[in-house]
User: What shape does this take?
Amino acid sequence: MLNVQEISSSGYSLHLMPLWELWCNVEPVHVCLRQQRLLALLAIQGQCRRELVAGLLWPESSDASAQDNLRVSIHRVNRSLPGLLNVDRHSVGIDPSIPVDLHREWSLLQGNELQAHPSSPGKEPLLLGWYEDWVLEAQLRLLHARTAYWRRTAGGCLVSGDYRGAVESAAHGLRLDMLDEAALEIMVAAQLALGQCISAMGAIEGFRRTAHHELGMSGSPALDRLEAQVRGVARGSLIGARSAGEPFSI
Assistant: This one.
């Protein structure tokens, strides 16, 4: 995640995960809630037309009142935090030179981050404790992207024969979305490749319990086929071990 040492030429860095924080020259900056909301929205949405920003931040106000509120907020940010905003007559955004932890996270999730030692996506929530619609939508997009990242990583590991990496990556994804059946299938395939039939069956049974608790149903035809596959592999391994006269353990 973004380190407070990663600052722009103006000295600012903005954090949205897990909590809203603005730093300037590695010192925290106090910003009132109205201006926090403006900066958070711009960090999430990017450069936006003024009317869109006003409508999202003050949805229950008239257009004129929302635009007035936006003008006041922009003025206060420009006065107290010069260089932070990129403003023209029609749009407003955060200066693109300002490091934002969410931007770096998205760059990593989309495979655009170039660095000597690639890192993994973060686990911290976005704007913890904020419940406005535009925040909830952004939180959901981030969750889906993180889940998809780990599913892709697990699938790549499986194809390349890194079965332990596939299990670990699929587990990361399932911790984010416990009902990601595609991630479960990758995990089970990797566990079978490692000869871990009991672990594979345990993963399926845990998935069924979660599905029953969350959805009132214990699985799907695909899950039934996956379980049948595991049982078939386990029976084959047991028969093979007995034929060889060897003790069998999974």
In short: The chain has two domains: 12-103, 130-243. Confidence is low (pLDDT under 50) at residues 1-7. The longest helix spans residues 133-160.
